[in-house]
Design brief:
By secondary structure, this protein is mostly helical. The chain is built from 8 helices and 3 strands, in the order H-H-E-E-E-H-H-H-H-H-H. The N and C termini lie far apart (38 Å).
Length: 185
C-alpha cells in the first residue's frame, strides 16, 4: 500500500508547523502531550477510567491489549491511552491518535457488526507515517546522523523507540544526505 502523492512532504510541513507553534527547533523533540494540549485534545490515561485499573487484562501492555484510541464526545475528540505501556510506546500511541485528528480522519466504531476490528488500512498508514514524522522529522533524522548520535541515545532524546528512529533515518535517507554534506563541505 502506498501513501498518496505528496503525503510525506505534507507530514514534514505539519512537523515544522507544530514545532514553530510550540517554539521548538525544527530538529527538536516534540512531546505528544504538549501537542495535544496545543490542539486542545484531552488525553486521558486508561488508569483514570473506572474499571480499567491493573486488574483489567486490557490494562497490561501486551500484543493483544489496548494501546490507545480516539473517542468522539460531542464535537470534541478525546484520546485514551494505556499508561502501563513503555513511555516511548505511550508517546507513539498518543501521537498516532493526534495524527488521525490532524488529518481529519472521520471517527468510526472500533468494531464491525460481526465483531471484527474496524480497520481502514489507508487511514492507519497515514496516521502511522504522520505520527512517526511528528516524532522524528527529517531535520531530526539528519541531526542524529550528522552528530553521530546512536539510535539508543536518540531514543532517549526524542522519546521514541530505536526501531522508529532507524526507520525515519532510512526513509529520509539521512545517511545519503550526510554523505553529500560531507563531500561538498
Amino acid at each position: 500500500m502506498k501513501l498518496r502523492r505528496g503525503f510525506r512532504k505534507e507530514a514534514e510541513e505539519y512537523a515544522a508547523e507544530y514545532r514553530a507553534e510550540l517554539d521548538l527547533a525544527t530538529d527538536g523533540p516534540l512531546c505528544p502531550f504538549k501537542l495535544a494540549a496545543l490542539l486542545e485534545i484531552p488525553v486521558v490515561p486508561l488508569s483514570h477510567l473506572d474499571g480499567f485499573g491493573p486488574e483489567n487484562p486490557n490494562y497490561s501492555p501486551s500484543r493483544n491489549g489496548f494501546y490507545a484510541a480516539t473517542i468522539p464526545i460531542g464535537t470534541r475528540r478525546h484520546i485514551i491511552y494505556n499508561d502501563m505501556s513503555h513511555p516511548n510506546r505511550q508517546r507513539s500511541d498518543v501521537m498516532h491518535e493526534i495524527a488521525h485528528t490532524a488529518l481529519g480522519h472521520p471517527p468510526h466504531p472500533p468494531l464491525t457488526d460481526d465483531g471484527c476490528r474496524n480497520f481502514n488500512p489507508v487511514l492507519e498508514l497515514e496516521a502511522k507515517e504522520l505520527s512517526f514524522t511528528l516524532l522524528i522529522p527529517k531535520p531530526a533524522a539528519r541531526r542524529i546522523v550528522a552528530q553521530g548520535i546512536t539510535s539508543f541515545q536518540a531514543s532517549i532524546i526524542y522519546g521514541a523507540s530505536k526501531d522508529l528512529i532507524e526507520y525515519r533515518i532510512r526513509i529520509t535517507d539521512a545517511h545519503g544526505w550526510d554523505r553529500n554534506r560531507q563531500r561538498y563541505n
